[in-house]
Amino acid sequence: MKKVFLCLAIFSVVFFTSCGFYKKQIEETVRTSFEEEMRNDDTFGKIWKREGAKVQSVTLVQNGLNKYDGIVSVLLKGKTYQVAISVTADGNSSMWQTTGFAPFAFLMEYMSWDDMLK
Question: Which residues fall within 8 angstroms of residue 109, CB to CB, at 6 or more apart?
């Protein structure tokens, strides 16, 4: 009986530790991808680079099999802005998305006329 309990305890530790590790990997992948997408975006890329915006963190909560909801925290000129995202991830890749234009409205206050005309 002690062996069965010990096996279950070891399995539980390994299982729950690996799940947390997997989520951290997804968060890091999304952080890198989000940062790259924003730097290369036709609309916001110039602002992102010029103002020195950075992704501070990505926090995800699993809401189903391979599905996560989360927040990307963006640091821009000393202020932190939060962008809601949805993520789908399997063992090989991940994909994130926001809902429309609204999550990026905070960047509008940093837009110049030159940004709008080009």
Answer: none
